[in-house]
Design a protein that fits this description.
This protein is an alpha+beta fold and 769 residues long. Among the domains are: 401-547, GAF domain (Beta-Lactamase, 2-Layer Sandwich), CATH 3.30.450.40; 576-768, 2-Layer Sandwich (Alpha-Beta Plaits). Helices cover 37% and strands 28% of the residues. The chain contains 16 helices and 32 strands. The strands form five sheets. Strands 1, 2, 3, 4, 5, 6, 7, 8 and 9 form a nine-stranded antiparallel beta sheet that branches. The longest helix has 80 residues, at 15-94. The relative contact order is 0.06. The model is unreliable at 1-14, 340-344, 550-576 and 580-588 (pLDDT under 50).
Length: 769
C-alpha cells in the first residue's frame, strides 16, 4: 500500500533555494542596468547644471519674482472657494435654525454675489439628494433641487432675477443627475480636507473651471458633501498681463498636461466627441510650451535650458502650493532675451545615453531569460524524476498483492484508487463497473483523499447520465476542468459531483477487446500527466478483474403501451386520476405511516407538445402513463393539481409495503418521463419528492364528494420535489430513506430544513439494489 508519507512536496521543499536562485538570475542583471542608468543620469545632470549656471545667474531674480507673484495670485484666486466650502460645512454642523436648506441656499446666494470667481455652490448627500445654486442670466440665480430619498424622486428648478424675485419654476422628471457618481462627491468622501477636482468645462457657461469639495459627517451616518465651482478665466487674464523678458510667457498646467490658464485662451477648449474639454499642451500648436512641458515631465520641477529648433529657451517649472490639485507653473522665454552666451547640448547627450541604457537593458533581459529557462527545465526534470519514482513504488506495491485479479477482494482495487489519488493529486478517485446490460454504472470503490476513507455501492443509470454512457461506450476520455459548464460532464456534475463541491473531472474508460466494461474517475486532479502510465496499468488490471465478473440479474419491465387520449365527454372537476377504495370509513382519518410522492412539472410549452398529426399532448401521455403505473403498483390515490401530481399509499395500518411501492412507482415514472420528454425533443422538466409520515384524509364538499389528502407528509413530499437535486431526480426525506435503504441505492444530497422538525438529511434515490 502506497503511503502519503512517501510523497514529497517539491514546491515546498525547494521554495527558499529556488527564491535565492531567482534573485541571483534576475537581481544581478537588473542591478547592473540600474547602476548604468544612475551613472548616466548623474553625468547628464551635472553637465546640464554646469552649462545653465551662467544664464540662470542673470535671470534668477526676475524669474523668482514673477514666480512668487503668480503663486500669490493663484492663492488669492482659489482661497475663497476653499473657505466657502469649509464655512458651509461648519454652518451645517452648528446651525440651530429650523430650515437648514433655506440657510444653505441663502449662504450660497451671498457667496455668489460676493466672490465673482465662484460660478456655483451645491451640496449632495449619500442618499442622492442634491441642492445647487448657480449664476443665472442677467445677474440672476438658478436653484436646482433633487429629492431622491425618502419618497419618489423629484427634480425642481427655481429661477430668480437680479432682485431675487422668482421668475420661473419647473419640474424636470427626465433629469437623472446623481451627485454620488460625480468626481467631486466621491473624492471628498475619501479626503479629510478640501478635495479639488481636475479641470473640466462647465456645461452652462462653456468655460473651464474646477470644483472644491469637502465632506461633512451628518447624524445617523449620512455623509454630506459641499462643492464650490470656480472659473479660471481671471487667471488667464492675469498671465496675459505679465512681462517676461521681451517675448516670454507663462502657463499653468495640471498633472495630466491639460491647460489651466494661458495668455491666449482662443485655443484652450477642444471638442472631444461633442463635449468640450480643456486642451492639452500638445494640442495648441505651441512647440516651445510643449517642449518645456516635455522636459518638466522627464526632469521634474526646476530651471533649465531647452532647445526648440536651433533656438535655446529658458524654462522654469514650479509647483503651485495653493492649488487643490497638482498644478504646475511653466515659464518660458528665449535665452537671447537675457543673454546669448550659453549653448546647451544636454538634451542630445541624454538621448545618446538612453541608447546605451536601452542596449544594456536588452542584454540584461536576454541574460535573465536564458537563466530562468534553464532553471525551469531543471526543475521539470527533477519533478518528473520524482513522479516516476513514485509510480515505480506503486507498481511494486501492486505486484506484491497475491489476490490482485480476484474480483471478490476489495483490497487491491482500494490500493489502486489510493495510489492514483496520490500520484495525480486528485481529491477523489473511483472505479466503476458497467453492468445491467450496459444500463448501470456500479461503484466498486471510491477513495476520498481528504478523509482517507473508502466507500462503494453507488449505482448510476443510463437514464440519469446518457452523455456519460455514450462517451464511455465510444472509448472517449472526458477531461473537464469545469464539469458544470462542460456538455459531456454536466449530467455527472449535477448527479454526484455537485454534492462534493468538485469542479474538474477526468473520466477514462476501461476497455477489453474494443468494448467498454468500466471506468476510472478522477475528481479535481492537479497532476493527471504524472499518473498517466500508472493509470494505463490500473485500467488493464481492472479490466482483468472485471472480465471474470458477471452482471447481477437485472429486472426488466415491459414498456408501457402508448396512452390514447381519453374519450371526449364530461370532465371530472375532482382532477383525480386514480381513486379506489377510499369511500366510507376513511373520512377525516389520520394515517400514521402514509407514503406520499409529489411530482412537480415545469415548462407549460413542453407539456402542451403534440405529436405530428395527433391531438395527444405530452401531458396526456404522462397522465395515462401515471394511471398505468399507479394500477401496477397498487397506488390508491393519484391526484393532479395544476403542474403537480400527488400520489399516496398506506391507508391501512397493516400496509407495510406502501413506501416500497411508492419508491418503485417513482422509479418507473422517472424512467418513462425521461423517455417521453426525449421523444418530444425537450429536456426533462420534472422533479420527484417522497416522504413517509403522518397524513390526514377526508371527503369534502357536496356530491360528488372529493377525497382530499393533506398533512405533514404531503407538505414534505412537495418540498422535496420543489427543492430537488436536479431535473429528473427523486429526492427523499430522511424518514423515507430509513424505510428504503435496505432495498434501494441512495446518495446523500445534503441537509434540508423541515418546519417544526429542524434540519434533516435528504437523499437522492438511484434505483433498486
Amino acid at each position: 500500500m502506497m503511503s502519503t508519507d512517501d510523497v514529497v512536496d517539491i514546491a515546498g521543499a525547494t521554495t527558499h533555494p529556488r527564491r535565492r536562485q531567482v534573485w541571483l538570475r534576475v537581481g544581478i542583471p537588473i542591478g547592473g542596468v540600474a547602476l548604468v542608468i544612475a551613472a548616466i543620469l548623474a553625468i547628464a545632470l551635472y553637465s546640464e547644471r554646469a552649462n545653465q549656471s551662467g544664464v540662470l545667474l542673470l535671470s534668477d531674480d526676475l524669474l523668482a519674482t514673477l514666480q512668487g507673484r503668480i503663486s500669490q495670485q493663484v492663492t488669492a484666486y482659489l482661497d475663497p472657494a476653499t473657505r466657502a466650502a469649509r464655512l458651509a460645512r461648519d454652518m451645517t454642523g452648528r446651525t440651530t435654525i429650523a430650515s437648514p436648506r433655506a440657510a444653505l441656499e441663502a449662504f450660497a446666494a451671498s457667496a455668489l454675489r460676493q466672490i465673482p470667481q465662484i460660478d456655483a455652490f451645491y451640496t449632495g448627500d449619500a442618499a442622492g439628494n442634491f441642492l445647487m445654486v448657480q449664476r443665472g442670466t442677467a445677474g440672476g440665480m438658478d436653484t436646482k433641487t433633487v429629492q431622491n430619498a425618502p419618497g419618489p424622486r423629484l427634480v425642481e428648478w427655481t429661477r430668480r432675477d437680479a432682485d431675487d424675485r422668482v421668475v420661473g419654476h419647473e419640474m424636470d422628471p427626465n433629469d437623472q443627475f446623481d451627485p454620488r457618481t460625480r468626481e467631486w462627491f466621491q473624492g471628498a468622501l475619501k479626503s479629510d480636507d478640501v478635495y479639488w477636482t481636475s479641470v473640466y468645462v462647465f456645461f452652462t457657461h462653456r468655460t473651464p473651471g474646477v470644483t472644491a469639495a469637502i465632506r461633512y459627517h451628518g447624524t445617523g451616518g449620512l455623509d454630506r458633501v459641499f462643492g464650490v465651482d470656480i472659473t479660471l478665466q481671471a487667471l488667464s487674464d492675469f498671465l496675459a498681463s505679465l512681462k517676461i523678458g521681451r517675448t516670454g510667457r507663462a502657463a499653468i498646467v495640471d498633472d495630466s498636461g491639460h491647460l489651466i490658464a494661458a495668455p491666449d485662451t482662443t485655443h484652450m477648449l477642444r471638442d472631444a466627441g461633442g463635449q468640450l474639454t480643456t486642451a492639452r499642451v500638445d494640442q495648441i500648436n505651441d512647440p516651445v510650451l510643449m517642449a518645456a512641458y516635455d522636459h518638466f515631465r522627464v526632469e521634474g520641477y526646476g530651471r533649465r535650458i531647452i532647445m526648440v529648433g536651433n533656438e535655446p529657451f529658458v524654462s522654469i517649472a514650479s509647483h503651485l502650493p495653493a492649488s487643490g490639485r497638482d498644478w504646475s507653473l511653466l515659464m518660458i522665454a528665449p535665452e537671447q532675451d537675457f543673454t546669448g552666451f550659453v549653448a546647451n547640448n544636454g538634451r542630445r547627450t541624454l538621448l545618446l545615453s538612453l541608447v546605451v541604457v536601452a542596449l544594456a537593458a536588452m542584454l540584461a533581459a536576454l541574460l535573465v531569460h536564458q537563466g530562468l529557462r534553464a532553471d525551469r527545465t531543471a526543475r521539470l526534470l527533477l519533478e518528473r524524476g520524482r513522479a516516476i519514482e513514485q509510480q515505480n513504488l506503486a507498481f511494486a506495491n501492486l505486484a506484491r498483492q497475491p489476490n490482485l485479479f480476484d474480483n471478490t477482494q476489495q483490497a487491491p482495487v482500494q490500493q489502486m484508487t489510493q495510489a492514483l489519488a496520490d500520484l495525480a493529486g486528485a481529491q477523489r478517485v473511483s472505479v466503476w463497473h458497467l453492468s445491467g446490460g450496459g444500463q448501470h454504472l456500479s461503484c466498486e470503490d471510491l477513495f476520498d483523499r481528504s478523509g482517507g476513507g473508502h466507500s462503494g455501492g453507488l449505482r448510476l443509470t443510463r437514464a440519469e447520465l446518457p452523455q456519460i454512457f455514450a462517451a464511455l461506450e465510444s472509448g472517449a476520455v472526458i477531461d473537464a476542468t469545469d464539469a458544470a459548464s462542460d456538455r459531456r460532464a454536466a449530467e455527472l456534475y449535477r448527479t454526484i459531483l455537485h454534492g462534493s463541491r468538485t469542479r474538474g473531472v477526468f473520466v477514462a474508460p476501461v476497455r477489453v477487446d474494443d468494448r467498454t466494461i468500466g471506468a476510472i474517475m478522477l475528481e479535481d486532479a492537479s497532476h493527471v500527466a504524472d499518473a498517466h502510465e500508472f493509470m494505463l496499468l490500473t485500467a488493464d488490471l481492472i479490466a482483468m478483474r472485471m472480465r471474470g465478473a458477471t452482471d447481477a440479474p437485472v429486472t426488466t419491465r415491459s414498456d408501457l403501451a402508448q396512452v390514447a387520449p381519453s374519450a371526449t365527454g364530461e370532465r371530472s372537476l375532482t382532477a383525480e386520476l386514480v381513486l379506489q377504495g377510499l369511500e366510507g370509513p376513511l373520512a377525516a382519518d389520520v394515517f400514521a405511516s402514509a407514503a406520499v410522492m409529489a411530482i412537480r412539472f415545469s415548462g407549460a410549452q413542453a407539456l402542451a407538445t403534440r405529436d405530428a398529426g395527433s391531438s395527444v399532448t405530452l401531458a396526456d401521455r404522462i397522465a395515462g402513463m401515471m394511471q398505468d403505473v399507479a394500477a401496477a403498483h397498487d397506488i390508491l390515490y393519484l391526484k393532479l393539481l395544476g403542474h403537480e401530481v400527488i400520489a399516496a399509499a398506506g391507508f391501512t395500518p397493516d400496509d407495510a409495503s406502501a413506501i416500497v411501492r411508492i419508491a418503485d412507482a417513482a422509479i418507473a415514472i422517472r424512467e418513462h418521463c425521461l423517455e417521453l420528454f426525449e421523444v418530444c425533443g425537450h429536456p426533462p422538466q420534472f422533479r420527484i419528492g417522497i416522504d413517509c409520515g403522518v397524513a390526514i384524509g377526508s371527503h369534502v364538499g357536496r356530491q360528488p364528494r372529493i377525497f382530499n389528502l393533506w398533512g405533514e407528509a404531503v407538505r414534505t413530499a412537495i418540498r422535496m420535489a420543489e427543492a430537488g437535486a436536479g431535473p429528473g431526480t427523486i429526492q427523499v426525506s430522511e424518514s423515507a430513506y430509513r424505510r428504503l435503504r435496505e432495498q434501494f441505492l441512495f446518495r446523500l444530497r445534503g441537509r434540508f430544513y423541515v418546519p417544526q422538525a429542524g434540519a434533516e438529511q435528504t437523499f437522492v434515490l438511484g434505483g433498486r439494489q
